[in-house]
Amino acid sequence: MTYGELYKFTLNELKDCTDSPSVEAGMLFRHCFGFDRVKISVNSDKSADGEAVELLYKCICKRKKFIPIQYILGESIFYDFDFIVGDGVLIPRPETEILVDEALNFIKESGIANPVVYDLCSGSGCVGISIARLLPYAKVYLFEKSDSALEFIKQNVELNQVTNVQVFKCDIFDGVSSELPLPDVLVSNPPYIPRADIETLQPEVKKEPVMALDGGDDGLDFYRCIRNKWLSEINTSVFFALEFGIYQSDDVLKLFSSVSDDARIIKDFNCIDRVICGNTVK
Fold first, then answer.
1. Could you tell me the CA-to-CA distances from 152 to 11, 16, 68, 126, 191 in Å, in that order?
2. Which of 248, 243, 233 is nearest to 259 (CA)?
3. Which of 51, 63, 186, 223 could lock 118 by a disulfide, CB 3.0 to 4.6 Å apart?
4. Same domain, 143 and 29
């Protein structure tokens, strides 16, 4: 089979398991052969064989089982930075980049010289590590409960070569530690799917860890925790930016208006309410 024929075969195999077969076929060719679209075209008549072809077949087989493409590749892009991902950690998503934007904007506008940033429920570490890369003078603390996710955080700290990050195993329901410096900024993309809705999610999403999805009966357990055990217990004003799920904006705004006079909702690139941010009143 030539590369051209193999590419068409890949497109055909992927069409029933993704809405973007051409995009994912290109990703798999780059992963297996190191080919971009130009190289696929230039080499379309050349014979394709060897271990790379076998790797491609294995990748296609996994994708047809609805294993997320990021897990297959072992990597994901977030805020133009590379992050290692795999089974056991939430896959970074573009809308979560809003948390980084809001944290950066607040820190730059407020002129804080040495900001302290907390990233709760860090997952892969993509939010906190991105902030640390962009603000090397900040001190960033990552809090995560999952042992599997913690391993990915450590790998991503090393991959992104950030030295201004500290990682803590932490169940956020235990509350804030009195031994750490108080934060200027608190960001989080916590679990927010209502428990009964998890079985209705897309097949790929259900491959991600339930711990990173399950937000309790109404999806708001972690928001109540962050308000009550973190923001309410920190004896200084904190800027917070938290991602939440669809149709949750009214409930989340009500929750955080009790600790903030300027809590506001920000929409994502699909014009869906996605992030709440504001300053706590102290």
1. 31, 30, 17, 10, 18
2. 233
3. 186
4. no
Boundary (domain end) residue, out of 12, 30, 65: 65
- Neighbouring-strand partners of residue 279: 239
Inter-residue long-range contacts of 65-69, CB under 8 Å, 24+ positions, other chains counted: 66/17, 66/203, 66/204, 66/207, 67/204, 67/207, 68/204, 68/207, 68/208, 69/18, 69/24, 69/27, 69/28
Is residue 249, in this structure, part of any structural domain at all? yes
Query: What's the token pair of residue 113?
Result: 């010289």
What is the pTM (predicted TM-score) of this model?
A: 0.94
Return the CATH number at 214.
Answer: 3.40.50.150
Q: Is the same domain home to 130 and 203?
A: yes
Tell me, yes or no, whether 125 and 247 share the same domain.
yes
- For 259, the token pair is 């600790």
101-111 pLDDT per residue, tens: 999 999 999 99
Q: Which residue is listed with tokens 């960001």? A: 187
Domain with 36 in it:
3-65
Same domain for 184 and 138:
yes
pLDDT, tens digit, 9 for 90 and up, residues 228-256: 999 999 989 999 999 999 999 999 999 99
